[in-house]
Design a protein that fits this description.
By secondary structure, this protein is of the alpha/beta class. The chain has 2 domains: 197 residues, Quinone Oxidoreductase, Chain A, domain 1 (Alpha-Beta Complex); 127 residues, 3-Layer(aba) Sandwich (Rossmann fold), CATH 3.40.50. It contains 10 helices and 18 strands. Strands 3, 5, 6, 9, 10, 17 and 18 form a 7-stranded mixed β-sheet that branches. A 6-stranded parallel β-sheet has the order 13-12-11-14-15-16, sandwiched between helices. Strands 2-1-4 form a 3-stranded antiparallel β-sheet, with no helix packed on it. Helix 1 packs across helix 10, helix 3 packs across helix 9 and helix 6 packs across helix 7. It is globular and about 60 Å long. Bound molecules: zinc ion (2 copies). One zinc ion binds next to helix 2.
Length: 346
């Protein structure tokens, strides 16, 4: 089969690889669509440690079951499925609570083991979830990463309530879905903050009421003015930068809360305690999601209440993975999510 492997020295190569073989309680999937995430880019550029080099890249995918181990019940050849982005241990308190993002033993696909940028993948049955017919493979491929992660941030960590003013800083892949979900869950005013004009345009299409250019000289004031009143009740950050987290803390209203979902190695400061404590700001990280939240997101997408038709902004044959990564790195076409389509002709 064809697969895209990352080697040391940041080299990404299309390779002819042996078909993966089935182990106990495992399932083989023919990948129909694989999402390309910012994390893949960090891995390919050497900004994240990748423990299993060389490795088939990718942690977002959806496809059709091709072969099932005899020990597996409830999954049959021909089933449409989406893949979870990591293999979890299944035994720790986080796994028992269904919180997939917090398992300390999680092995992320495409990093700690072979991933989805291939014609086939073998995973334990716990890595699968049925994909309803109403959801196209390319949308199914992003549900368990860009969409469910946004749902956990908005619905659970932020616990957004009807009538709240919300600002979203960083409106790329996950941030875009934060806007869609904040709208769906009843936010009153949504302010989208991004330095890219294309991302701001897409944010408006996703339901943002006002857009603010993150490179504006006084962006804090612009966010507060756009939100009205004293500023946003809730700021959700998905840029993963020191400056953007500090901006979130500086712009949120008194008594407001900041949800930080962007991941990186930078160290933001809280600012003077007299302001941070005096304004009673809440700051929470948000990582991953639970199985129940993923189920909710699948339901919302299948019913059409959550419209993901604007989420896939470019499609590439599998062989063009390096081009897709370059386009994501350069922001070509103002990407929300790019997908690779194994089987499509180059
Ligand atoms: Zn991802
Ligand atoms: Zn675990």
């Amino acid at each position: 089969m064809k697969g895209i492997r990352l080697h040391s020295g940041s080299s990404v190569q299309v390779e002819e690889l042996p078909e993966p073989t089935l182990g106990s309680r495992q399932v083989r999937i023919a990948i129909r669509a694989a999402g390309v995430c910012g994390t893949d880019l960090h891995a390919a550029h050497g900004r994240l440690p990748v423990p299993a080099l060389p490795v088939i890249m990718g942690h977002e995918g959806a496809g059709v079951v091709e072969e099932v181990d005899a020990d597996v019940a409830g999954v049959a050849v021909g089933d449409r499925v989406l893949l979870l982005p990591s293999e979890t241990c299944g035994a720790c308190p986080a796994c028992e609570a269904g919180h997939l993002g917090l398992c300390p033993g999680a092995r992320i696909l495409g990093m700690a083991r072979d991933g989805t940028f291939a014609e086939q993948i073998v995973v334990p049955v716990s890595c699968l979830r049925p994909l309803p017919d109403a959801i196209p493979f390319e949308q199914g491929a992003i549900l368990a990463d860009a969409v469910a992660t946004a749902y956990h941030a908005v619905a659970t960590r932020a616990a957004v309530t009807g009538g709240e003013r919300v600002a979203v800083i960083g409106c790329g892949g996950v941030g875009h879905h934060v806007i869609l979900l904040a709208r769906l869950l009843g936010a009153r005013t949504i302010v989208a903050v991004d330095a890219s004009a294309g991302a701001r345009r897409r944010a408006e299409a996703a339901g943002a009421d006002v857009v603010v250019d993150a490179s504006d000289a006084d962006v804090r004031k612009a966010i507060r003015r756009a939100a009205g009143g004293e500023g946003p009740d809730l700021v959700i950050e998905y840029a993963g930068k020191k400056a953007s987290v500090e901006l979130a803390i500086a712009s949120v209203a008194r008594g407001g809360r900041v949800i930080v979902g962007g991941v990186g190695m930078e160290s933001p400061a809280l600012g003077p305690l007299v302001s941070f404590v005096g304004r009673e700001i809440g700051v929470l990280g948000s990582m991953g999601y639970t199985r129940a939240e993923l189920g909710r997101v699948v339901e919302l997408a299948a019913s059409g209440r959550l419209d993901l038709s604007g989420s896939i902004t470019a499609r590439y044959p599998l062989e063009c993975a390096a081009e897709a990564l370059a386009d994501l790195a350069n922001g070509r076409g103002d990407p929300v999510r790019l997908v690779l389509l194994p089987g499509a002709s180059p």
